[in-house]
Amino acid sequence: MGRKDAITKEYTSDNRIFADLFNFFLYGGRQVIRPEALKTRDSAEVAIPYGTDQKSVPAQKQRDVLKVYAAKEAGGVTYLLLGLENQSDQHYAMPCKNMMYDAMNYSSQVSQAGKSHRSDHKADRAEYLSGFTKDDRLMPVVTLVLFWGAGEWDAPRSLHEMFGDVDEEVLKYVPDYRINLIVPAEIDNFEKFTSEIGPVLKFIRESQDKKRLKELVYTDERYKSMDPESARLLNEVAGLKLDLTAESKGGRVDMCKGWDDYAEDRVKSSARDTVIRMIRKGAQLEFIIDTVTGLSEEEIREIYEQELLVK
Known about the structure:
The chain is an alpha/beta fold and 311 residues long.
């Protein structure tokens, strides 16, 4: 697992972030799923696709995050199995990938039901062979994909989109599978989020336009006091190099200060490249000092001396 994948997985494993993402997608931002009602499950699923036949070959897949939600209702408790997949890059087979995850979750539930009925001699032949009785029920599975890119998602969103030219008379008998997807570039109201994931996704959406990003950081109060985990995640996902070592009171990060340092570093880096190019073209030190901005005279002299030593 790469560094970016590990950071996004750890970040979205937080029950508050996880619940906020599903509340946004499923309920339009209404706070239906409560963080305290979420229980983390082992994200490694092992399933035997063809039932309880000992000759079947088990398969195993690893989800990013998998949690069980227990919703208390008038008739009792309803359980949902919620899976989250973090995508830093486009995945052109995402419908197949998620369909396999969901199928394995359902297959695993059937297998668990079968194990619980092994000592039940009242089951009829059909129930015994399938490992699932007519009174058993499956837990619904909802898989959500979170795209961490700033641009549009141009990969397929459904199984049918992955096919070539298929006769419509045939296609209508091929079950489709659509992915549930959150793309920052497609969000028009970030206020529907209640946790820090809202500002994080908004920052990512604007990250391709440095001018708009700078304006966002300086005008939105939420970036003047951000939690360290979100700030570090943005550094990694957006490819920035904000200085996050200086934290304000309460362990919060001032993204405005980080942006100032980042902008200054960019100016210095650009000026340094200019000085080196001028030296290599034979420009005199005095001319470079008079011409280049963004670096002090002392800094330019140091670069000049280093380049002479290289020669």
